[in-house]
């Protein structure tokens, strides 16, 4: 069995779970706590560790903006480590919501109807 066949089998197993999943207060709170811990580790701890490694191990210390390319690279990697997980969570949330809508047969405008206009 090659990789595309395995991915198809995995997707077929995941589709009923994605289609039938409903949020409860308990699952929403636990998911929020998990998201907070994920965010704190990936957006705070990892960039801080990178800055420590860059300054202590590589000798890339000092203020940026001096024209040294390694200081700019150090800051660019730190910003990528800070913003990358945030953007990834947003993109995954949109992809999962669209996948769930498609599995449930809902497409088009998602605005509620009725009520005062």
Main attributes of the structure:
117 residues, mainly alpha, 3 helices
Break the fold down into its secondary structure elements and pairings.
Blueprint: H1 3-20, H2 25-56, H3 69-104
Number of domains: 1
Order of H and E elements = HHH
> What summary fits the major beta sheet?
none
Oligomeric status: single chain
Description of the structure:
The protein has 117 residues and is mostly helical. The protein has one domain. It has three helices and no strands. It has helices at residues 3-20, 25-56, 69-104. The relative contact order is 0.09.
Summarize it.
By secondary structure, the chain is mainly alpha-helical. It is 74% helix and 0% strand.
């Amino acid at each position: 069995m090659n990789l595309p066949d395995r991915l198809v089998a995995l997707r077929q197993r995941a589709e009923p779970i994605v289609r039938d999943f409903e949020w409860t207060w308990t699952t929403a709170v636990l998911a929020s706590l998990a998201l907070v811990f994920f965010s704190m580790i990936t957006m705070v701890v990892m960039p801080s560790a990178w800055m420590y490694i860059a300054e202590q191990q590589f000798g890339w210390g000092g203020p940026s903006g001096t024209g040294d390319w390694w200081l700019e690279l150090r800051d660019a990697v730190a910003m990528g480590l800070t913003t990358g997980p945030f953007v990834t969570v947003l993109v995954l949330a949109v992809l999962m919501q669209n996948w769930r809508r498609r599995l449930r047969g809902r497409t088009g405008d998602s605005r509620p109807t009725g009520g005062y206009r």
